[in-house]
Amino acid sequence: MVNLELYKVFYTVAKCGSLTKAAQELFISQPAVSQAIKQLETQMGTSLFNRTHKGMDLSAGGGKLIYKQVEEALTLLEDAENKLMELKTVASGVIRIGATDSIFSNVIADKIAEFHQRYPAVKLELISSTSPYTISQLKEGKCDVAFINLPASDDEVRFYGTVALLSDIFVAGKEFADRAAEIIPLEDLQEFPLMMIEENTIARRAFASFCETLGVRLSPDIEVANWDLMKKLVIKGMGVGCIPREYCREELSNGELYEIKTQPALPVRGVGVALAKHTTLSYAIKEFLAMFSQD
After folding, report:
1. ω into residue 120 within 30 of 0, thus cis?
2. Cα separation of 148 and 98, whole Å?
């Protein structure tokens, strides 16, 4: 059987009408093109081209007889190759997503649901933990993409971008509703029973760092493991909690919680995406991340 590459050279020469132009299109030398044509003519037992001063013309008894069929065959092969390439750009496989419970619920749940509708063949594994532990899972190869509280830094991780902003505020239940109209100096919050997220979290570290820059030291009376528990305890009157506004909008709207305004207000934080530093992203992960850059 004739080598397929010889047919490709034949088709390119016929299309270009020149050995030189064909060589340029094929990224090979002109002698290599000429040799390929001679080899094909030998195997076919007939002359395929008429060599003229203008270039290469298909011969009536050879090249013109096979040109159409060769063109159709090469087109079919190209279509087949394209179909195989499309398979490589179909979202499939597994994406292991790490985040805190609150980030899952308040930041990325809608995107996860939308992605699942678009790409039902992709299996999603949701790994819930604190941001520091999620980063360690990422570095150990147990997580593909992490959504973490910022600020964070790690030389073994690359940070992809910010997908949401969080405005930390102090909230209280109905017992402290009369204080909602005031603006309280930050250091005076210690007079309240104070509730904060546990100490080993990025959110707590960011809060402590901000207070330190002001020379303010606030010690919580109660530490809790997650924001949902904090909201419930604050609503029950157990104290004033520090929580992102974005995580308690409903409770603020319906009057279950009241914002205690402070001077100064706490700085805005972010939720960012972290990826393992030297990992090649699958098509499915790229498509998942692209959903966050569309907003």
Report:
1. no
2. 8
* pLDDT tier at 89, thresholds 50, 70, 90: low
CA quadruple 254, 255, 256, 259: dihedral sign: positive
Buried b (16+ CB within 10 A) or exposed e, 169-188: bbbbbeebeebeeeebebee
Could you give the angle at which helices 4-16 and 63-87 cross, rounded to 10 degrees?
A: 110
Q: Using a cut of 0.70, tell me whether the model's pTM lies above it.
A: no
**Residue 91 pLDDT more than 70?**
no
Distance of CA 232 to the CA centre of its chain: 33
Q: Are 76 and 68 in contact (CB under 8 A)?
A: no
Determine the average pLDDT of the residues in 141-158: 88
Task: Give the pair of three-digit tokens for residue 213.
Answer: 């820059």
**What sign does the CA torsion over 26, 31, 33, 35 have?**
negative
CA 198 → CA 103, 193, 241, distances in Å? 16, 15, 12
Angle in degrees, CA 188, 268, 237, rounded to 5: 45
- Taking alpha carbons only, the member of 246, 257, 87, 288 closest to residue 176 is 257
Give the mean model confidence (pLDDT) for residues 256-280.
91
pLDDT of residue 75: 85
Instruction: Report phi then psi at 152, rounded to 5.
Output: -150, 150
Q: What tokens does 252 get?
A: 């603020």
Q: Please tell me whether residue 156 adopts helix, strand or coil conformation.
A: coil
